[in-house]
Design goal:
mainly alpha
Length: 89
């Protein structure tokens, strides 16, 4: 009988999402919902429901476009904090 190789593609495809959520835990501001809505509107997307953004953040729903917006908001927040620290120091 031939040995069967386990197919772990699901874990590999979701690893970038786990990295994104770890990044969000570190850098996303508490007031992320309105900032995410503003970011999506600037990019030409239809204004999403605020509950949908919270559900994506809490890993209840997986929407890559909203997850990308959350990561962009977290990056802007991180850059702002670094800039403030460099000016103050």
């Amino acid at each position: 009988m031939a040995k069967l190789v386990k197919n772990n593609k699901k874990e590999d495809t979701l690893s970038h999402n786990e990295k994104a959520y770890k990044y969000l835990d570190e850098h996303l501001p508490y007031t992320y919902v309105d900032l995410t809505v503003d970011w999506l509107i600037k990019r030409g997307h239809k204004s999403p429901n605020k509950a949908l953004i919270r559900n994506v953040r809490n890993k209840t729903i997986l929407r890559n476009d909203i997850l990308l917006a959350l990561v962009e908001v977290a990056t802007e927040n991180k850059n702002s904090i670094e800039r403030i620290n460099s000016i103050v120091s």
